[in-house]
Amino acid sequence: MKKNNSSSALEPTVNVLQVRRFRLSFLYAVPIGVLGGLIGLGGAEFRLPVLAGVLSYSVRQAVPLNLAVSLVTIAASLAIRGSTLSFSLVIPLLPAVLSLICGAVITAFFGAAMAGRLSNEQLERIILVLLVLIGVVLIVEGFLPQQIPALLPPALGWRIPAGMLFGLAIGLVSSLLGVAGGEIIIPTLVFAFGADIKTAGTASLLVSLPTVLVGVVKYASRGAFTDRTALSNTVAPMGVGSVIGAVIGGMLVGIVPAAVLKVTLGVILNISAFRVFDKAKSHD
Prior knowledge:
By secondary structure, the protein is mostly helical. The chain is built from 10 helices and no strands. The protein has helices spanning about 1-40, 45-55, 60-85, 95-115, 120-140, 155-175, 180-190, 195-220, 230-250, 260-284. The protein is globular.
C-alpha cells in the first residue's frame, strides 16, 4: 500500500512537469524562431540552453531532442522557400553543396556515436566550447560585409576537398549540439564559396536536411527517442513554435539590422551557455 501511495503522489508532480514543458517549449520556441528568422537562421543553438536549463533535461537528452526539432524546422523552411524562391540559383553551388553534404553526413553519423561514449561532464564541456565558438562567430560576422569575393579559387580541385573538410566540421557540430548548422554553413558558403546571402540560406537547408536526418536516425538507433512523452510534450510544441516564429521573423526582416542582431545574439548565447553549464556542473 505504501508503494502505491508513493506512486500516486508522484503522478501529479510528473503531470505538472509535462504540462510545464509543453507550455514552455512553445513559448520559448516562438521568440527564438522570430530572432532566427530575422537573421536567416534556425535558432537551434538558443534552443539547446532552454532544453538543458529551463526544461530541465539532461544534456544527453537535450541534444537529440534539439536535433529532432531542427529536422522539423528544416523541412518546414524548405517547403516555405520552395514556394517563394527558385532553387535554380543553387545550381552553380551544387559542387560545394554536395561536398559539404558528403563530409557532414560522415561526421553526423560518428558524432552521435561519440556523444554516447562521452561522460556527461565531457559532453557538457564540449557543448559549452562549441556554443561559445558559435556565439563568437555570430559577433564577428555582425561586423563583416555581407558579400566578399570567394576565398577559394573557382577550380573544383580546390572547392570539393575544401567542401568535404568544412562538411566534416559541420556534421560534428550538428550531431554534438543537435543543430542544423546554418550558423556555420551560411558563412562558409558566403565567404569561402562566394555565394550571396539568400542563395546561401537555401543551400544551407539542403546541406542541413540530410545531415540532421542522419543524426536523428543514429540517435534513434541508440534509443534516444524511446520516451514518447518528450516527443509530444517538447519536440512537437517546440517544432510548431519554431516554425511560427521563423515565419514571423521572415516577415519582419529589415526592421532591425541583421548585424546588430547577430552581435546581440552572440553575446546572449555566450552568457546563456555559461549559465547552463554552471548550473549543470553544480548538480554533479
